[in-house]
């Protein structure tokens, strides 16, 4: 782990971990559903939910990184440059 990560943890890592643990639990349930020969529609719905949970976790992780590491890298900026950075942060929410 890098020194910066030890002293300046990302704010949303707990939220990401919580989502991933939830997805992990759902995966276990899906395997049990498969062993129980549950209908494919049920399996597909649950897999979709896991996929969305992982996708959201990744999105939160990336946005948290941009919000904190980018700002730390550029430091204090004048209002116009800061507005550009803020717009970049905002637009990444649509990825």
Description of the molecule:
The protein is mainly alpha-helical and about 100 residues long. Helix content is about 80%, strand content about 0%. Helix 2 packs antiparallel against helix 3. The radius of gyration is 19 Å and the shape is elongated. The two termini are about 25 Å apart.
- Total helix count? 4
Instruction: Quote the beta fraction.
Output: under 5%
Shape designation: elongated
SSE arrangement, N to C: HHHH
Rounded to the nearest angstrom, the distance between the terminal CA atoms is 27 Å
Structural class by secondary-structure content:
mainly alpha
What does the main sheet amount to? none
Provide the helix percentage: over 70%
Contiguous low-pLDDT stretches (5 residues minimum) are 1-6
Task: Give a short summary of the structure.
By secondary structure, this protein is an all-alpha fold.
Question: What are its keywords?
Answer:
95 residues, 4 helices, 80% helix
Task: Show the helix and strand layout.
Elements: H1 3-7, H2 13-35, H3 40-74, H4 79-91
Helix pairs in contact: 2-3
């Amino acid at each position: 782990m890098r020194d910066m990560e030890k002293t300046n943890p990302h704010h949303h890592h707990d939220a990401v971990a919580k989502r991933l643990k939830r997805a992990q639990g759902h995966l276990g349930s899906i395997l049990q559903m498969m062993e129980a020969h549950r209908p494919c529609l049920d399996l597909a719905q649950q897999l979709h939910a896991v996929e969305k949970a992982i996708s959201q976790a990744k999105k939160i992780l990336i946005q948290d990184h941009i919000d904190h590491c980018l700002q730390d890298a550029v430091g204090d900026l004048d209002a116009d440059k800061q507005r550009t950075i803020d717009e970049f942060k905002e637009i990444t929410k649509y990825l």
